[in-house]
Amino acid sequence: MAAILANVVADNVHAPIIDLSELNKHQAVVYLQEGNVWSFQRASSELPVTVQSKLRVTAAEGVRAAVLADVGLTIASEWMFSPERRSGAVRAVLSEWSLPPLDPWAVLPTGRGATAKARAFVDLFERTFNA
Questions:
Q1: Calpha distance 103→114 (Å, rounded)
Q2: Is the pLDDT higher at 102 or at 81?
C-alpha cells in the first residue's frame, strides 16, 4: 500500500519541507493507530521520526478534516486525499521517501458463518493487491 505525507498547499504560510529533519518544525495530525513516531524508508534504510502534535484523532475523517483545515500535516494512504491532490488543495511532500508497507487483514467468521459474497470479496481484494 502506497502512502504519502500530505500537507495543505499554503506555501506563503508554510515553508516547504525538504528533508526529514525538518518534520519536527511542523505540527502533525496524528492518527492514534499510527502514533507519533513515523518510519520512513528509502533504498535499504529506514528512519524513524518523532513528530510534534497538538492534535491526535481516532478516525480517518478527523485526519482529513484537520489537514484540510490546515491544522498540520499527516501520513495517509494516497486514496484518502485523492480528490484534493488532483485539485491542488493537498500535496505530497518528501516524495523520495516511502512508508513501510501495511498488511491488510480480513476477519471472517469460522465455519459456515462467512457468506460466499464475503469470501469472494476477500479473494478479489487479494488478487487485486497482490498482483
A1: 21
A2: 81
